Automatic annotation (TrEMBL):
Residue ranges annotated for the FAD-binding FR-type domain, each copy included: 8-110
Keywords assigned by UniProt, alphabetized: 2Fe-2S, Flavoprotein, Iron, Iron-sulfur, Metal-binding, Oxidoreductase
Pfam families: FAD_binding_6, Fer2
Record-linked InterPro entries: 2Fe-2S_ferredoxin-like_sf (IPR036010), 2Fe-2S_ferredoxin-type (IPR001041), 2Fe2S_fd_BS (IPR006058), Beta-grasp_dom_sf (IPR012675), Cbr1-like_FAD-bd_dom (IPR008333), FAD-bd_FR_type (IPR017927), FNR_nucleotide-bd (IPR039261), MRET (IPR050415)
Gene3D superfamilies: 3.10.20.30, Nucleotide-binding domain of ferredoxin-NADP reductase (FNR) module, Translation factors
Source organism superkingdom: Bacteria
Residue ranges annotated for the 2Fe-2S ferredoxin-type domain, each copy included: 242-325
Protein name: PDR/VanB family oxidoreductase
Listed CDD domains: fer2, PDR_like
Amino acid sequence: MLEAPAEGEFMPLRVTRAEPAADGIHLFELRAPDGAELPPFTPGAHLSVRVPSGAMRNYSLCNDPHERDRYVIAVKREGGGRGGSVALVDNTAEGATLDVSAPRNLFELDTSAPEYIFVAGGIGITPILAMIRYLKSIGGKPFRLFYLTRHTAGTAFHGELSDPAFAGGNAVVIHHDEGDPANAYDLWPVFEEPTRAHIYCCGPRPLMDAVRDMTGHWPENSVHFEDFGSDLVRPRADDKPFTVRLGPDGAPLEVPVGTTILEVLRAHGRKLPSSCESGTCGTCRTRYTAGEVDHRDMVLTPAEQKTALMICVSRARTDSLVLEL
């Protein structure tokens, strides 16, 4: 068995499949070069992948966790993002090698729940698909899946999920709104009356906010969300370039719009620890001594934000920041 790498380290895996899963979505199958078993993962887990541009990105595993010979991820090509998914989709072919972290799980399936309600929006189907495959492989508990996308062509795994054999007596609803909010699927009847089910939701922030609003009367520990901080890493319309200095006497380094502090420091030869690169894990926490930070992470408390920032997502409100490394 291939030994799981330590935190911040990676294992080289070979891409044994690289193919479209839907319009704008690419599937990648990863295996150990020598065919060894891979470190185990649990339903809802993700990998950190070093994409060809050198950036780190998180992708949920979507195959059955009982499979030990491969990892499967599906990646949406985000043309308006920071370039990680574009680099991976456009520059990774079958036979390539990618550096991959050990699986981590921030969206763990509670296997003690008696039943499940899954809500997936777009590419958010990936961790939920691993959960369903796990349940089916163990003879499963009942579940309902609500998979909401814009159109059929952009729906990953549409053929598999729409096959009655996949549901196996469970309820699977695939709904396309064709990009019109007026055609949005009404989830309120699903959540109006709390049950013993656990809810798992992954998808765009508006969908998760809507589900959060509709489930406020459910037990708090029965409702689970995952989005990898996607809105935290996306460039904003009011973003501006700024500079960072390493110490008060350090040379100013420009951080352009669409580039993170972490990426700039790497480009200048600094090898810094990081993992999620989405403001959700805390690995790249860095002390600062001057300037005002635009904090965009989901980790630091208000007190901690006075002296520290996450350089993978946060930016400056002032023209410059002074970091202490």
